[in-house]
Batch of 2 targets.
Target 1
Amino acid sequence: MTAMTVTSDSTTTATGGAPALVVVAHGSRDPRALSTVRALLDRVRALRPAVPVHLGHVELNEPLLPDTLTALGDGAAVLVPLLLSRGHHVKRDIPEMAAASRARTRVADPLGPHPLLVDALQARLTEAGWPTHAGPDHAVVLASAGSRDPESRADTARTATALSARLGVPVVPAYASAAAPTVPEAVRTLTARGHRRVAVAACFTAPGRFATECAAAAPWIASAPLGTHPSMARLLLHRYDRARGAGGGTDVLEGARGAARCATTNAALARQPHPAPA
């Protein structure tokens, strides 16, 4: 995955300082989500005091991303999606909002898949009661929001594979919406295979309806959303650093040609068989 250049390859401010880090959250009607995201941003600021850190939402919460970018004027910023896989928001909505602003921006990759994300998932499972040494009857359902985009599902499957390698047990990705299997379906599949201890790992950045519904389907333990885990703050900064230093990227101002290429790629991916998750 490569960062997308929106208006300029320059990601330093006019005064030579660090470009702003704009964390782009989805937004939620659950008030716990906004407070969690704000607390996560405070962790990021504590790790990197010299970097201006801002928040923008795709929808549902203020500040909305266009308003955050307007406040930055023509300054430089790196937009880091607080999203765990590729999908419509990462590939279309966020770049289009960035292109409509005066800011000199670069859009970073989403947070997953990445080893730091797996660190946070494992830690949340441990907090929920996952044993140090899991047996052959243990398994995990990796619960995420879901997307119709095949690249999003491929990213979630890769995260599941990495978590499986870390834990030494089967990990099956499942979705709250827009994709199959659902969490209850994945639980039933693993139970039918003889796994009596099936945990649900919340692959969500903050509390909300999807996270609550998925946790309710757990037959054993369910981990909390990733929230303010230290690895999440470090991962946001890692994506910021990578995007800031990227020399290439896709200029989303190519407009229709870029959109056509994206649609062609997605259609090709949809026709390709995807490997079964571990």
Note: The domain at 115-216 is CATH 3.40.50 (Rossmann fold).
Target 2
Amino acid sequence: MRRRRWDYEDWPSENRRWGVWLAGGTALVAICYILGIWTGAALTRGRSQTTVEYVPPQTGNTTSTSGSLTPIPGVEDTTIVTQIYNRAKNSIFTITAVSGGKPTSSDAEEDIGTGFLIDHNGDLLTNAHVVGSATTVQVSGDNRQFVGRVIDADQLDDLAIVRIPAPKSLQPLPLGSVKSLQPGSLVIAIGNPFELTSSVSSGIVSGLNRSMSESNGHVMNGMIQTDAPLNPGNSGGPLLNAAGQVVGINTLIESPIEGSIGIGFAIPIDRFIQLEPELLAGKPVAHAWLGIEGMDIDSLMQQALNLPVSSGVYVTEVTQGGPAAKAGLRGDSNAAKLNSLSQSANPYAALKGNGDIIVGIDGRSVSSIEQLTQDINQDEPGQTVVLTVLRGGKTLHVRVTLGTWPSGQNP
């Protein structure tokens, strides 16, 4: 008999210190639980972009034509949420990845999430953490069962493609853009929370361009924050706008309990569109890597360490052999002592204050690790950037050739 469990994973939260590999750090976040994974007793975890206007709630049987709503024959009066749900539900699937042994093994565990059809080739988009390390997954939807082949999985962006022999009659969901959203915009989530298939919830956009840190130090930028209730099983499902277009991929929640408290996050669909050619071709996605660990500078840190600025990125440590180290960047000489402190301790007491301070990149000012990360996320491995660095009262311009994020390693 197969054993099920909730898959639980902490997205680290440190008050000041962020490990930066892609761009500089482990983000300042609370514990975030990855959705969509059934693994134990705790919770975890080509197309053109079209900007659309918000479509206000209305009654009457309608469907979408070129971003507008028109009547759906034979459907009774419904709300806009029901209209969008009825159009999208047949293109949304439950994905089950079995790990730890064969499906019939007593050691086997099931990770369950959601995926949705993006083209007529049978390609489903989902989260990488839904499929895990599986090469094939079980897919169900539209009253059918399929064996899905994992074409590609980009763990850092948490995106994966699963291909099934989908009937040509099934319609892929239209892709929109995060540019169609603003705080307060209506959004609709469809997925399989707690294995309740084809469940719909709705809410608004609570915030845009959020940054979330992963446990490996990589920072996901541009995230959509929503109060639409998301729960385990929603991972990999679509977040749709009022025109019925996919604007995000539901991926995680921030919660002190094992369920939604109205703070959920979705990866912007724009990120997938950017990576779509590589993912569909099964090519690995390369991510730029700087190779430092650092802390955001504020007025308290400035005073404690007698720093010359009240904002910027204080480099606590550089990764040996990494791009930053090769370029000559320096960390704090007491970094080893800092690593031994508990999170409740005062980190400033362990620091000597002689680490480099990054205040700019390619002529643009940098005030935080989040900002530095956003810049480097737009770069490619092998690209050279110029960091503006303060060291010993002098301003230096340090050229760094970015590396490729080492897979399977943490900062």
Note: Residues 269-280 form the longest helix (12 residues).
